[in-house]
Amino acid sequence: KSLTILSIIACLVFGLVGCADVNGLHNQEAAEVTFVFKNMGEDISGEYSNPGNFNNWDNTVATVKLDGGNGSSTPLVISVSNIQFSLVKVNDWGRSWYPAVQGNGSDAGTMHNFYIDGLDLSAGEITLVIDGSAAVATPVVE
To answer: By three-state DSSP, how is residue 118 classified?
Structure first.
């Protein structure tokens, strides 16, 4: 009898806990997104931050390594399909690649940041390529 009660309690506990993703939210879709930056300027090198609406615009962590304007980020877990983001030096909001490279997102009437909508979070892993050699650098899923 006590084994039956214990089994019922265990089922209730496991039913309430369920499975969670990396953010601890049940059934929330999230993808690992790698940002690849190309042609951002030959003198753009070093460690950069990739702040955006997916990380509360946190520019305190180095997530991107660039050498001669080319490089990529560590994979970032993103749980929103429409994202805005930038590329800045860690702890600095200056955009050393601007105005030579124009982004496709608006920042106070100027084209600084980047924007992409409709990311397929069920894809699991996504690579976003931002090529600064285009007239307007627009993130493209590859």
So the answer is: coil
